[in-house]
Every structure is written in C-alpha cells, then in structure tokens.
Amino acid sequence: MDFDFSQGSQFVIVVENRRHKADFLEVAEKGTVVFRILERDHAYLGSHSGRSGCVFFLKDGRSYWVRGKISSPSAERAIVLCEAAVEMDRRVSVRLEVQSIPSQIKEPGLFRPRIIEAHLLDISRTGAKIAPRTSLLPEKVYNFETSFPCRHEHVPFSSSCAVRYCGMERGHLVSGLLFTGMTPESAQSLERYLTELQSR
C-alpha cells in the first residue's frame, strides 16, 4: 500500500445504500486500511460486514476513491481491504452513449423507497450519466435500476451508486453516477451490454 492516506480528509465509506463519514487511523498489514467512524446514516449492523464498497476522500484539493471489501468489527471502526489502486475521481473507462433508456433511481426510505424516474444517457464499467426527473444530491447514495436492450432480450441491471454531480447540460438536468456495488449477475449484464454496444 504506497498511497499516503494520512494526508487525506473528508473520508466517506459507501457500502450499497449505506454511507458513513470517517477519519483515517492507520494502514495495517496485508493492504488493509483502518478508519474511525464519525457518523453513520444507519444503525450499526455487524451482519453487513465483508461487502464490497468504496471509500471517497480529498487529498491536495483533489477527489479520490478506492474500491474494496468493507468490514466493521465494531460501531466505531471500519476496515477496508483494498482490491485495487487508489484512483483520482474521474472516468476510468470508456463511456458509451445510449438512446435514452428508461431507468429508475431509488432513494432508501423508512418504509419504502422513493422512486425517481430517469433516462440513461451513457454508461461505462464504472458509472453512468442519467437525466433524472428531479435533482439528486451530490455524494448521496441511491440505487440505480434499468433494463439493457440486448439483441434478443432485455437484461435487468441494478447497482448502488454515488452521485458525483448534478446540474444542467444543454438545457436538461443530468447527473453523473459512480457504481459502488452490484451483484455478479448485474456485473455480467453490464459487461454483456457494453460488449454489444462496442460491436455495433
């Protein structure tokens, strides 16, 4: 682990629809990074440990993120086993335009999620640009759902996501999403759809 996390600030740990503010504590053995939880948006659930997620943070005025397995041995601690190198927060794969695919953004609620209708505008392996019906809050975690039109069928896809920006573009409201957690089935659907797009 050659990245200096001690110089970072405003750490946010995202796992599925859960988002926690944290402080860096130390880099432990075998590439694990230990954080102190400052604020949780849900009550502590030990059963949710070991799931894939992302850590977002600032360093030298720039935004970074890293993907890994997130464990939480207690309500005050989080341990991240990094699965890839730290990336500067920007598009890390080629984005492909699509023809306005109907989609939904789901905001977790107390009893049932709030559903925001949207249209998918472009997509990559790491995120997407959408046109939502209403504004989305930057850095907030939502669930994104759609159905990819593949050759002979529509393939369902869903992922938790973090909103990287939301604003006007050519007179339309758009938002950039970073995928933060998906099932192996959804990852396979995404890869299949991207392959088909590139072959057209």
3D structure, described in words:
The protein is 8% helix and 60% strand. The chain has 200 residues and is mostly beta strands. The chain has two domains: 5-88, Roll (Pnp Oxidase, Chain A); 96-199, predicted glycosyltransferase like domains (Thrombin, subunit H). The strands form two sheets. It has a six-stranded antiparallel beta barrel. The protein starts with 8 loop residues before the first strand and ends with a helix. The mean pLDDT is 85.
Q: Which sequence of strands runs across the widest sheet?
A: 1-2-3-6-5-4
The shape is globular
CATH topology of the largest domain: Thrombin, subunit H
Tell me the fraction of residues in β-strands, as a range. Answer: over 45%
In short:
By secondary structure, the protein is mostly beta strands.
List the SSEs and their pairings.
Layout lengths: L8 E7 L2 E10 L4 E9 L10 E9 L2 E13 L2 E6 L4 E2 L7 E12 L6 E10 L3 E6 L8 E9 L4 E16 L2 E10 L2 H16 L1
Antiparallel strand pairs: 1-2, 1-4, 2-3, 3-6, 4-5, 5-6, 5-7, 8-9, 8-11, 9-10, 10-13, 11-12, 12-13
Any key phrases for this structure?
mainly beta, 1 helix, 200 residues, globular, six-stranded antiparallel barrel, Pnp Oxidase, Chain A, Thrombin, subunit H
